[in-house]
Automatic annotation (TrEMBL):
<protein>
    <recommendedName>
        <fullName>CASP-like protein</fullName>
    </recommendedName>
</protein>
<feature type="domain" description="Casparian strip membrane protein">
    <location>
        <begin position="57"/>
        <end position="196"/>
    </location>
</feature>
<feature type="transmembrane region" description="Helical">
    <location>
        <begin position="144"/>
        <end position="168"/>
    </location>
</feature>
<feature type="transmembrane region" description="Helical">
    <location>
        <begin position="188"/>
        <end position="209"/>
    </location>
</feature>
<keyword id="KW-0472">Membrane</keyword>
<keyword id="KW-1133">Transmembrane helix</keyword>
<comment type="subunit">
    <text>Homodimer and heterodimers.</text>
</comment>
<feature type="transmembrane region" description="Helical">
    <location>
        <begin position="63"/>
        <end position="84"/>
    </location>
</feature>
<keyword id="KW-0812">Transmembrane</keyword>
<dbReference type="Pfam" id="PF04535">
    <property type="entry name" value="CASP_dom"/>
</dbReference>
<comment type="similarity">
    <text>Belongs to the Casparian strip membrane proteins (CASP) family.</text>
</comment>
<feature type="transmembrane region" description="Helical">
    <location>
        <begin position="104"/>
        <end position="124"/>
    </location>
</feature>
<dbReference type="InterPro" id="IPR006702">
    <property type="entry name" value="CASP_dom"/>
</dbReference>
<keyword id="KW-1003">Cell membrane</keyword>
Amino acid sequence: MKEHKDHIVVSITYGPSSEGSVTASPISHQAPSVPTPSSLAYSVTPSASRFSSRRASAHVSGLVLRFITLVLCFVAALSLAANVHRPSQRHRSQSSSSFASYPELLYCFGVAVTGLVYTSLQTFKGVCDITHRGILISEPLSDYISFILDQVICYLLVSSSSLAIAWIQHANSDSVKTLRNNSIVSASMAFSAFLVLALSSLLSGYKLCKRFMW
């Protein structure tokens, strides 16, 4: 509420006739008005909070996708590594039952290990960013690196699964039956990891575009 206080000013005028006239005029003094805050002053806060909440949800979603990719790459590498043993005397002269004897499977194993190491580092960084924001690497640089490396690992995973499938189609010998079954599991996990990491790369591109827009 605004308070108004009225004061009366008395002025005495002396003329040549030595008669003074007295006049009184009220003067109203108003208390300094408090500026009313504009509605636009608070319009930025909800949008900023929504933007920060979207970034937080995108960060958590990316962390979950990378952890799933980590598990799939681990299974893909383990399914091939579990078959490393000496071939039996019966099939020693025919073919080896180790994946290291076949370049396609060796490439698939190397890509799975590479994807495992990459997603492990990304998952560790994501957990550190939640607890201590930007402690390992700055966010702008992290967005650039994640966007580029996600594309590279996606290409490696889909190419390794393609080579493994091509080898599986030509592996009909009984001596490599176990290796063939393990290769099917490895190729399936590698392709699944490619799909999940492709979603993660789309999310990385979204965050990078948002950084340019904002």
